């Protein structure tokens, strides 16, 4: 504790060696809400999503991320309905969801409510029967026999993994760059979309994303979220990227395998040096985690609330996956119809409070608009405590990431206080 006390305030270290994209002003205090249109309602339509926008606005949602809304390929598709990420046509809407006009209406309604909408964009691969396979076969990767083949990637174990329902795009062909950028621009210019979440962004050349962002920003300022954690993606193209390392620590805390020490180490020694103005997407769940790993109760147990608080108060832009506000307690099927049971929206108030906390306190805003993390010594190494300050505004957060009550002492307060297991305290001076 003496070492910690000697540097009572320890700022998170970042580097800012690159010229970064100019973030849309509206993104600085924003949160992201991910919508799976197929499972969001029994109808599974864009109109059903639109009907819920007033509720989401009431909850404080700022950016609505729609998972892929395109028609899904039929050739070699998986399950009954196929994967959302096997795109058949980049400039069309899945007829199961509705029409392009339905999406236009949804976007117009969101804008009227002061919200923004981003589309999930699959730039690395397409369905086998994507319209480009016939129109532009030279835009696809081919094997030694000159045949288009399933996407095959190397996995962490040193082997390979085949995605049998999709084929890879070949970015060595610069004509593909124009075709893909034009398709993205259609949704921004003709439908009013405010940006994109780029699926498997790290598998597509950064130079493509850089030029695409430049072209889209000429239409209007867009928000770009990368499913990746490469600092170079922030040079020109992306506002935000996934903070998988922090989520990994959260999962370990949920299993009792990590705690305050790991959180402090993450803050003071981040695994990668990101630009100070880079937004990191913070989350406890999303469509991949939910479908393949489990619901919040499975991953975090009683630690979930505390981990959600950290996702909102540590630097970054927080994400809520649809259904979390209803305490979604199961894996949603990925290739089948499996609508969310909304029950009574049990946690809607919890998320509304966190969304308001972030918006009302500039110290918690994203990038350089918010304050850097300053670790606090509260006299107990089992407790994780930090402060963020921006101008006159400061927020202190104290979290007990253990299954036992923990005593702590806040500087300036008389005596010790106690945090119950898995609980937190947020101090915002008036």
Overview of this protein structure:
With 430 residues, the chain is of the alpha/beta class. The chain has helices at 2-6, 37-40, 46-51, 53-58, 100-112, 131-135, 174-191, 206-219, 244-254, 260-268, 287-292, 296-299, 304-313, 348-360; strands spanning 32-35, 63-66, 116-122, 125-127, 150-154, 160-168, 195-199, 223-226, 240-242, 279-282, 317-321, 373-375, 384-390, 393-399, 406-408, 417-419, 424-427. The strands form four sheets. An eight-stranded parallel beta barrel has the order 1-2-3-7-8-9-10-11. It has a four-stranded antiparallel beta sheet with strand order 12-13-14-17. Strands 4-6-5 form a three-stranded antiparallel beta sheet, with no helix packed on it. β12 and β13 form a beta hairpin. α7 (174-191) packs parallel to α8. The longest helix is centred in the middle third of the chain and has 18 residues, at 174-191. The radius of gyration is 22 Å and the shape is globular. The model is unreliable at 1-18 (pLDDT under 50).
């Amino acid at each position: 504790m003496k070492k910690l006390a000697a540097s009572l305030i320890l700022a998170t270290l970042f580097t800012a060696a690159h010229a970064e994209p100019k973030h849309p002003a509206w993104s600085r205090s924003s949160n992201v809400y991910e919508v799976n249109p197929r499972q969001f309602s029994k109808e599974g339509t864009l109109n059903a999503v639109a009907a819920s926008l007033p509720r989401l606005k009431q909850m404080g949602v700022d950016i609505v991320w729609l998972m892929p809304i395109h028609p899904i390929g039929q050739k070699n598709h998986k399950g009954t309905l196929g994967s959302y990420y096997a795109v058949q046509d980049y400039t069309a809407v899945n007829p199961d969801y509705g029409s392009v006009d339905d999406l236009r209406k949804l976007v117009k309604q969101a804008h009227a409510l002061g919200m923004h909408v981003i589309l999930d964009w699959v730039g690395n691969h397409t369905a086998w029967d994507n319209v480009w396979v016939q129109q532009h076969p030279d835009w696809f990767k081919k094997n030694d026999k000159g045949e288009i083949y399933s996407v095959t990637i190397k996995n962490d174990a040193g082997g390979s993994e085949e995605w049998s329902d999709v084929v890879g795009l070949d970015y060595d062909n610069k004509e593909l760059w124009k075709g893909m950028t034009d398709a993205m621009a259609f949704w921004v210019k003709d439908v009013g979309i405010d940006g994109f979440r780029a699926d498997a962004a790290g598998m597509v050349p950064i130079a493509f994303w850089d030029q695409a962002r430049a072209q889209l920003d000429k239409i209007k300022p867009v928000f770009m979220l990368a499913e990746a954690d490469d600092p170079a993606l922030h040079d020109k193209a992306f506002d935000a990227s996934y903070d998988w390392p922090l989520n990994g620590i959260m999962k370990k805390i949920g299993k009792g395998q990590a705690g305050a020490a790991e959180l402090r180490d993450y803050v003071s020694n981040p695994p990668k040096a990101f630009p100070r103005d880079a937004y990191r997407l913070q989350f406890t769940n999303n469509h991949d985690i939910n479908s393949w790993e489990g619901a919040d109760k499975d991953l975090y147990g009683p630690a979930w609330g505390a981990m959600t608080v950290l996702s909102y108060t540590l630097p970054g832009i927080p994400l809520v996956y649809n259904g979390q506000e209803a305490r979604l307690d199961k894996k949603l099927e990925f290739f089948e119809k499996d609508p969310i049971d909304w029950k009574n929206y049990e946690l809607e108030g919890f998320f509304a409070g966190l969304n308001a906390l972030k918006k009302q306190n500039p110290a918690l805003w994203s990038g350089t608009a918010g304050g850097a993390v300053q670790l606090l010594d509260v006299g107990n190494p089992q407790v994780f405590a930090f402060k963020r300050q921006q101008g006159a505004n400061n927020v202190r957060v104290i979290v007990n990431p253990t299954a036992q009550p923990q005593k702590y002492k806040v500087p300036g307060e008389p005596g010790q206080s106690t945090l119950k297991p898995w609980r937190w305290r947020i101090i915002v001076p008036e």
